[in-house]
Amino acid sequence: MISNKALKNFVNLFSFLLILTKFFSYLNQKIEILFFIFWSMPILFLIFFANKLAIKAFQSFSFIFLIYFLSASLRVFGISPYVFDLLEIVLIVILFFICVFAPKIITRNM
């Protein structure tokens, strides 16, 4: 069984890796800085609410990660795939599963 502290650590780690991956895309001039900032804001909110163990936030971010998955899959399965886009889609799927199962983990540990 995963503890609440481990859940927070997983969310923080994978969120940081996802933002770092997108930042590498910015450094390689695949995206603009405004898109990077706009794209990173919801993940920063997730980190904030995940550390508070807000169940509704995890449920909301499951939906947001579905939207992220759809937009990332357009780039990954497009004409010219990029290595960091593939890593991004893997991290999005991991964070999606964490957000789906987090409410159950939180309620069991209370």
UniProtKB/TrEMBL annotation:
Family annotation (InterPro entries): DUF2069_membrane
Keyword Transmembrane listed? The answer is yes
Pfam families to which the protein is assigned, alphabetical: DUF2069 (PF09842)
Which keywords fit this entry according to its UniProt record?
Membrane, Transmembrane, Transmembrane helix
Where do the TM regions start and end? 7-27, 33-51, 63-83, 89-106
The protein here is known as DUF2069 domain-containing protein
